[in-house]
Fold this protein.
Amino acid sequence: MHFRTKESMTGYLSLLPAFAALAAIVFYPMVNTFYHSFTKWNGAESHGIGLRNYTLIFTNGELWTLLRNNAIFLLSIPGILLLSLVVSVLLFEEVRGWRFFRSLYYIPTILSSVVVGMLMKMMFAQSGVVNQLLHALGLTDGKTEWLTQVPTAFMVLIFCFYWQTLGQGALIFLSGLSSISHEIFESADLDGAGWWQRLFHITIPSLVPTIVYFTVTNAIYCFIGLFSLVYAVTQGGPGRETTPIDYMIYIKAFQTPDQLGYASALSIVLFAIALLASWMQIRLSNRFQD
Amino acid sequence: MHSNQRKTLALLLAASLALLAACGSNDASGSNSSAGTGGANASGGTTSAPSASTGASAGEKTKLVFWNTSYPTIDENDKTKKKEDFYIYKAIARYEAANPNVEIVIQDIPDGTNAMTKFQTAGIANNGPDVTNLWSGNYTMDLKSFIQPLNDYLKPSDIDAMTGWNAVTENFADTGTIYGVPDGSDGTIGILYNKKLFAAAGLDPEQNPPATYDDFVAMLQKLKDSGVTPIGSEQDGDFVYFLDYWLAQTVGTSGINDIVNGKTNFNNPKLLQVMQGYVQLYKKGFVTNDQPQTQFYNRKVALIFGGYGYLNDARAALGDDLGMMKIPNFSSDALVKNGGIGGTGADFVVSKSSRHPEEAVKFILFLVSKDEQIARFKDGYGKLLNLKNVDPGEFTNDPYVVKQQEWAGEPATIFWPDNIYPSELSDYISSMNELVVKQQLDVRDFLAKLDQKRDEINKQR
């Protein structure tokens, strides 16, 4: 055998275990889910029902509520983007106490969503510390039911999302800032550029790839990563008012009998939506970068 | 390519395919040969009872895995309490002493819907426990693909000794495929109240119990005027304890079935009237949803809705100030009067992947035997007995417990409607009801949404 062929074969063979693992862990479940999305399936028995699951998803009115809920989280991304950016710039410029704040912002990132959720649930309970504080300050009567009504339930969830993401965002932007040449800042300083001018004309343009990365990953999170937070804080309530699509997939798959087929179809719909949203974002950001 | 390389490639491909095949073999309805269930099948009542020694050779102990979803194994007030001091561990020790060839492995599992989720996923993976405890009625029936039918393992005398079999039999029938063994009784949901707070408001429900909704509202108004919050209720408005009773008594048991089957609608004038009355309680400021039980025990709330399950804690907190009465009828023309909701809300089931179903049923029958039901009652466990002709005097002298045991047997006690509704509908009702009590969803829209959901579920069946 020719040396090059032999080398190629060795390369492919060495990749095979990884591909086999990927096939078993990723591709097989995907194909299986796609197949079962056309069935009525209870985990034990399934039979084909064609497009009925999809028809139901698009006609029962539930999808639009779920999409609205995902959209609310999506719309909150610019806020956390801005916050992370500001915090990272301040940390990068080593404002007083930056070491302390760096740790402070990062701590929530290492906590699981469930821990954050349980903590917030206690804090925002009717007799929780938030109400007590607001009452002590004379701002409310201290009886606000944060988690049992909208929009306050959403506010708490978004607060949790921000609190947990801020450290991660600051870290990502800090690494982006580190890659910007110091000479540019020094030149700008010499030319008399102020802090805001440096921010808008040097820092932010240099960080566009980082901003794109942060936005895309968080947009994907807003579609497929909210389950644990919602489960821990509101359980999708009140009603279905804070139920995003991934939480509904859980409800249909594991808390509703015979609905694994429907849950599979909803997963495929979510996959398509997340794919489309990511693609659109990347297209837009490419145009922005150009 | 060298033959060695071809062999290696073929081996790797074969290994990959085998891995995929292994991941794909999750057909729980298929052969149970690996689990060795002894031929049990779900077609109903035709299971051939396997030998108890299946899977265990002579001299080997039969190991039964018991997923404990309901027996307490942690004392919140005394974290140093040893596991061996809890009732279920003592019961298992007694069973193992009497059956030295059996070992019970107990694993604690979260209760309620989480238990059902875990049981379902284990069923799909075909690695469920031998025995576990689930909510009865449709909650259990929804999982029947993963549960052993028990008809062949139960003797007529077993069935004759207990009540609550309708809750574990397909279609709530008197005879048919039995999927579980009823686990005690929850008694009947009534009203637990603070006698002192009532007396301060000039009320004595023992002498003058409220008979209708209007009487009830007048009573609550007096409580409110006396400066106390009248009702403590859970976030979802205690739908399954309280509103369910008013709805069910208005249409009767057959009416609930008609609603479930789609013959009549939730959105009808009678139920609309009930819903409007229910929301009025909130509009008039009679209800708090903030830590209802704690506030009741701390004497800040005058009443809560509850059955036997709350009696122990309420008695400990209020002593002789504790009162108990039935939920008043919504109106004088209700089809069921002077009752409540309750019954056998839970059951023991044997997983289809159990290798020892006969031994599992024996263990279950031990747990629900008279001696054990009395023992767990005396241990403070939150269930009454579901045995026929039971004399409460044998195990209690608390008049309210005696009354609960009597109420549970009355024909006016309606079986938990949320166990009769399809479980998906029950979940939907509870979640949407939160919006109703916060007045973010109009009651007419709520009832219309329930009909829509019910129709959707029935269409999918």
The interface with chain B takes residues 1, 9, 13, 16-17, 19-21, 23-24, 28, 32, 40, 42-45, 56, 60, 125-127, 143, 145, 148-150, 236-241, 251, 254-259, 262 of chain A (CB under 8 Å).
